[in-house]
Amino acid sequence: MPRGKRRAVNTEISPDDDRHSSKRSRTAATTNNHPNARRYYNKSEESFSSKKCLTWFKVYTTTLEPDILGPEGMEKFCKDISVDPENVVMLVLAYKMGAKQMGYFSQYEWLKGLTELQCDTASKVQSKLDYLKQCLDDPNMYKSIYRYAYDFARDKDQRSMDTDTAKAMLQVLLGKQWAMYPEFEQFLNTSKYKVINKDQWCNILEFSRTINNDVSNYDIDGAWPVMLDEFVEWLRQKRSTR
Fold it and tell me: Where are the domains of the chain?
């Protein structure tokens, strides 16, 4: 049976084909150059990745404790995000993670907090620093972070917080906004108190928010802890001798 003739391939482009090709080229160019399209692709490129976040976590851990970011890793992490370890923003970040112990992040805490913040790189955390600071502007959020700080910072073998740790945390939380804090710290340095319990801790915040700098509205018969009664008495005596 004889073979049929092969149909010649038309290598010429018809005017219609040319118009369609040009249209496709214009469409592609428009898509690539459109601002919304660029935003879409940038968003895709910057989307949060749990895997990337965990890989980043491992940069700060050791082979002996791969699931715990400890003090050395914390120092490196703070350096990478350009934040002093004693900056209050680190406390807010720990609060977001639900961290149980100062100086440590577990893998679970890291992923929990950074997933909420949608951060898987140091630069993304840096972009959230202003937001973390602004959390302290919300009175209710501030109160929650302040209360959280007590259990976060205290020695887990003790029910109360030692006064040295308390002074350091109070300096971070209240040092810049409570005018009486320097005098309160001085009172602690000269007092019999070696530890502060949680009730005292919570009332210090309430005292700083409600009591005038001249303590004229302090009710000695109110439901304040004895420690604050003693502070007011000490303060009045100190100021009367100036």
Answer: 50-136, 138-240
Element (H, E) at 147: helix 139-153
- The structure tokens 């049929």 sit at 4
Tell me how far apart the alpha carbons of residues 93 and 133 are, in angstroms, rounded to a whole number: 9
Higher pLDDT pick, 34 / 107: 107
Whole-angstrom CA distances from 197 to 39, 134, 163, 209 are 52, 28, 10, 19
CATH of domain 50-136: 1.10.238.10
Name the nearest CA neighbour of 117 among 50, 42, 173, 51. 50
Of 218, 136, 140, the closest CA to residue 177 belongs to 136
Q: Which two tokens stand for residue 166?
A: 């308390």
52-64 tens-digit pLDDT? 999 999 999 999 9
